[in-house]
Design goal:
InterPro entries: Put_metallopeptidase_dom. With about 210 residues, the chain is mostly helical. The chain has one domain. The chain has eight helices and three strands.
């Protein structure tokens, strides 16, 4: 079995660029404590690491770590980085570290991206014009969006800002996904209990976090 941490081509945080980018992502989380408290709470257990690997062109998550290509991260503006960062946190919360090999990888990623962006929009997030978002499917479940995308005339024109870890051709260090799922279920319940009934967490987003996705 091959995974990021065991590949000879991998370099863990070692350069000034790597350290600066990890620090920038960590600062995002600190700033979210006041501006995006739900995302900050969801991200509490996610470690940020810089990884140089040819397979990781952008960033991904294995549900325990946010893994970033530091050169790519350095090319982003602060607002771009924070949008991708927040998006990845919600990928982790949604369990998108779990592989779905039977699905068309691009369509499934788009369906997951759309679903996450629909939640972030409800939280008042900034959604640029090139964001993966299908207004007609705003309230649909991911499986419904995935099926609908089969009829999309030009799906290749829709591009995700990140990578799902299993689509990048790598596997997680943490093979026990059942344990990881359990961790996230408990963590999400605690976050929902903390923020439900406040302006920070609309009921529909809470339901999505609890599995209605």
């Amino acid at each position: 079995m091959s995974h990021i941490a065991s590949c000879a081509s991998v370099s863990w945080t070692s350069s000034n660029v790597d350290a600066a980018q990890v620090s920038a992502w960590q600062q995002d989380h600190h700033d979210w404590l006041d501006t995006k408290p739900v995302t900050a709470a969801l991200a509490e257990s996610l470690q940020v690491v810089a990884i140089n690997d040819d397979r990781l062109a952008t960033a991904t998550t294995d549900g325990r770590r946010l893994m970033i290509n530091p050169t790519w991260s350095a090319s982003l503006s602060e607002s771009q980085r924070r949008r991708v960062h927040e998006h990845l946190v919600w990928h982790a919360a949604a369990g998108d570290y779990r592989p779905h090999y039977s699905k068309d990888t691009h369509r499934w990623h788009l369906a997951c991206d759309h679903s996450i962006n629909a939640q972030l929009l409800q939280l008042g997030g900034d959604i640029p014009l090139d964001t993966v978002m299908f207004p007609v499917a705003a309230t649909w479940r991911r499986e419904e969006v995935y099926t609908w995308l089969d009829g999309h005339p030009r799906p290749a024109e829709e591009q995700s800002p990140d990578q799902l870890i299993w689509q990048a051709g790598v596997t997680s260090l943490h093979a026990d996904l059942t344990e990881l799922d359990s961790h996230w279920q408990q963590h999400i319940r605690a976050v929902v209990q903390r923020f439900l009934g406040t302006p920070c967490l609309p009921d529909r987003v809470a339901a999505w976090l609890l599995g209605n996705r």
